[in-house]
Amino acid sequence: MTRNLSGLLAPAVAVLLVAVVVAAVAGAWPPFVAVESGSMAPEVERGDLVVVTSTDRFPWGGLVGAAETGAPATFGSAGDVVVFDPPSDGQRPIMHRIAFRVSAGEDWTDRADPALLEGDCLTITACPAPYDGYVTYGDANGEYDQSAGIAPIVREEWITAKALFAVPNLGWFRVGVDAAIARVGVFPAAVGFGGLAAATGGFGALFLGRIAARRRGRDERDR
């Protein structure tokens, strides 16, 4: 029983160790973000898994907006893509691209791309900028978050991570877990996924055990 239990737990422990190592290198926890919307399509689609790092981690230190000269490319376009968590009740973290930095009291529409702007400073709640921060947007949205009312000016302390690269489709499990938690709660979801993982591991161990037994049987007959 101890041996079987160890065999079932080994894959989970290995995954946890990999996550811990990646987090230590990236300087962020969790070091992965599951994409839940298509706002960064086509480079990042719903269900992708994005590897993230701390915003001040070497050699990716600092935040650079798309409008800045020499801005690094992330997901095929200029500017850093960041994960930020507005303090609004019920709003999940957002992963969007930084357009440019703004200062308190600034009419930032003067520097905005007209193609990403709906209205002027008189009609946009986030203008003039009420404090120092960043204007952001989703690549697929076609409008600044602050113009569309998706988010206020993003304070630097709201930014929790910087995106590095995406792995297609590996985030669906996380998306499924979040959906299950939202529907039935944390404990029932944990029991359900835990039971599924245990059953999958048990069947896998049984299958591999039978293969090993057959192989040993063939070896003994060959002798």
Automatic annotation (TrEMBL):
InterPro entries: LexA/Signal_pep-like_sf, Peptidase_S26, Peptidase_S26B
Domain of life: Archaea
Signal peptide segment: none
A Pfam family it matches: Peptidase_S26
Subcellular compartments: Membrane
Any one Gene Ontology molecular-function term assigned to this protein's record: serine-type endopeptidase activity
Keywords assigned: Membrane, Transmembrane, Transmembrane helix
UniProt keyword Transmembrane helix present: yes
Keyword Membrane attached: yes
Gene Ontology CC: one annotated term: membrane
Domain Peptidase S26: 13-98
Protein name: Peptidase S26 domain-containing protein
Organism this protein belongs to: Halorubrum saccharovorum DSM 1137
UniProt lineage: Archaea, Methanobacteriati, Methanobacteriota, Stenosarchaea group, Halobacteria
